Amino acid sequence: MSTERPDGTNVGPNVGLNDETRKAAIQEALDDVAAQEAAEAPPAAPRNHADDLIAQLRRDLADYKDRNLRLMADMENLRRRTEDEKASASRYAIGKFATDVVALTDIFPRAIAAVPAGAADADPALKSLIDGVTMTEREFLNVLERHGVKRIAALGEIFSPHFHQPMMQIPNNDVPNGTILNVLQEGYMLGDRVLRASIVTVSQAAPKPSAPPAAPSAAGSANENVGSGPNSDPDNNDGA
């Protein structure tokens, strides 16, 4: 409602109102504008459950792929381990039998060593017998080697506790310390396993002899003789 001033001019409806009334009117106008804008705004789109389902399916698929890769890796490791165990069982199946057989190889060198030195040269029949034993030993070792049994190298090698068993140590400075000087019993391996270690004698560095005491020099002996003469004592000279 407009108000007429004494000079005849009209003023707006809010002129002359107090501050509280004016604020209330402004707030009411703002509320009306907000309500009108809310009524004119388009309705919110409904939530699409298909997107949530697709996202969940993608997560499940990634999880299944990871599990499948892990399972395939485990199966491959199991296959390799099974093949290794099968090959190892096949390779070492004759281990106990081979251990008993290699003991027979000790008979050949003992038979040859039992012949006195020079006796084979004087007796052709005995020489033929020794040659036959030597050939039999060589063929026997070839058969063992075809089945994976090999003799351990020992003579002249550096001692190794994995392959050699020391029987004694012999002082010797002509070879490096720990060199195998003699093989008392041959050792054998099946693949990479030791069936029997070689029994050996090993060199040991001999202690160096201590230096003899130095002999007195000729000049020192002459001085001692001069000092021990009859005129060497000044008291004796004075008494004379």
Description:
The structure is a single chain. With 240 residues, this protein is α+β, with helices and mostly antiparallel strands. Among the domains are: 56-91; 95-204, Roll (Nucleotide Exchange Factor Grpe, Chain A, domain 2), CATH 2.30.22.10. Helix content is 51%, strand content 15%. The chain has 8 helices and 8 strands, in the order ββααααααββββββαα. The protein has helices spanning 19-40, 49-91, 95-102, 107-113, 119-122, 124-146, 218-227, 234-239; strands spanning 3-4, 10-11, 149-151, 164-171, 180-185, 188-190, 193-196, 198-204. The strands form 3 sheets. Strands 3-6-7 form a 3-stranded antiparallel beta sheet. A 3-stranded mixed beta sheet has the order 4-8-5, with no helix packed on it. A hairpin with a 5-residue loop joins strand 1 (3-4) and strand 2 (10-11).
Keywords:
240 residues, 3-stranded mixed β-sheet, elongated, single chain, Nucleotide Exchange Factor Grpe, Chain A, domain 2, 3-stranded antiparallel β-sheet, alpha+beta
Strand content: 5-15%
CATH superfamily of one domain: Head domain of nucleotide exchange factor GrpE
Number of strands: 8
Shape: elongated
Order of helices and strands: EEHHHHHHEEEEEEHH
Number of helices: 8
Indicate the CATH topology of one domain. Nucleotide Exchange Factor Grpe, Chain A, domain 2
Q: Give the radius of gyration.
A: 56 Å
Provide the CATH architecture of one domain. Roll
Structural class: alpha+beta
Give the biggest sheet.
3 strands, antiparallel
- How helical, in percent, are the residues? 40-55%
